[in-house]
Amino acid sequence: MKAATVLVALSLCAVAAQGQSLFREESWRPLTADNKAFRPGDVLTVQVLENSSAVTSADTGTRRNNRMQAELSHGVRSVGQTSLAVGGDFDGGGRTQRTSRLLTTVSVTVREVLPSGQLRIAGVQSLTVNEELQTVTLEGLVRPADITDGNVIASTRIADARITYLGEGDVAERNRRPWWRKVLDVVGF
């Protein structure tokens, strides 16, 4: 009877204790594998090197002259004479010039691996300088072949890239036009 109790106790312990492997397939990387991001959660370094420049100019010239004349006569005598002249000139022009440059390095994470093998990436970097909060947000699609051996990619190699650079603080606030200036612009002053 004691042997039966010991046998039942041993079988209960065997059921409760299950072997677990130290190998985790989702995080395993061979010793000879490179260090490139290739699955969700992996970190990738993006070197943002963006330069943009745009110039727009327009010159417009319009001229208009209309003249009407009427004369009323009775026999050889002129009874009445009138004339109307309308003229107008318009000269207009404008020029817009904008240049921007953004140089930074942002670490992003792989959010999704698409069926085509492309990586959907996204990340945010926030930095405070002189009480000004600067935030860079980056999203896009990356081909694994464009990732260098150092796990770095240039922003110019990101498809559907959305790069946003925003600043908050005194300097950013001073760059915004006040509401009353916007109203005067709409009215035409």
How would you sum up this structure, described in words?
By secondary structure, the chain is an alpha+beta fold. The chain has a domain of 102 residues. Helices cover 16% and strands 55% of the residues. Strands 5-1-2-3-4-6 form a 6-stranded mixed beta sheet. The longest helix is centred in the first third of the chain and has 15 residues. The chain is rod-shaped. It starts with a helix and ends with a helix. The mean pLDDT is 76.
Mass-distribution shape: rod-shaped
Structural category is: alpha+beta
Q: Order of strands side by side in the largest beta sheet? A: 5-1-2-3-4-6
Radius of gyration: 37 Å
Order of helices and strands: HEEEEEEHH
Instruction: Extract low-pLDDT stretches.
Output: none
**Percent range for β-strand residues:** over 45%
| Biggest beta sheet attributes | 6 strands, mixed
Average pLDDT reading:
76
The total strand number stands at 6
Counted by DSSP, the helix tally is 3
Task: Kindly state the percentage of residues in helix.
Answer: 10-25%
**What's the end-to-end separation, in Å?**
105 Å
